[in-house]
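Got a spare moment? Tell me how you read both lines of this record:
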Amino acid sequence: MTDATPPPAPRPTSVKAVRNGPLQVKGTFRLLDPDGEEYDLTGQRIVLLCRCGRSANQPFCDSSHKRTQWSSQDQPTACEDADGGAA
């Protein structure tokens, strides 16, 4: 018999576009770099991903959007699938 603590149950994943800021990702997910290598997010409960493109710590937000007064034009719309039609 072992006293190992069972891993926590996976949490649903949510992605929120923060107004004039980053994408806030919560839950259980994997984040891969362009080569398919997984970022080590051990212990991270919330990850903020850069949307302005100015972060020195890509793909993560470093608040550059605030210094440069970047603004988003977030409006909910239908997503298109890979063939160009509505999903």
About this structure: Residues 64-67 form the longest helix (4 residues).
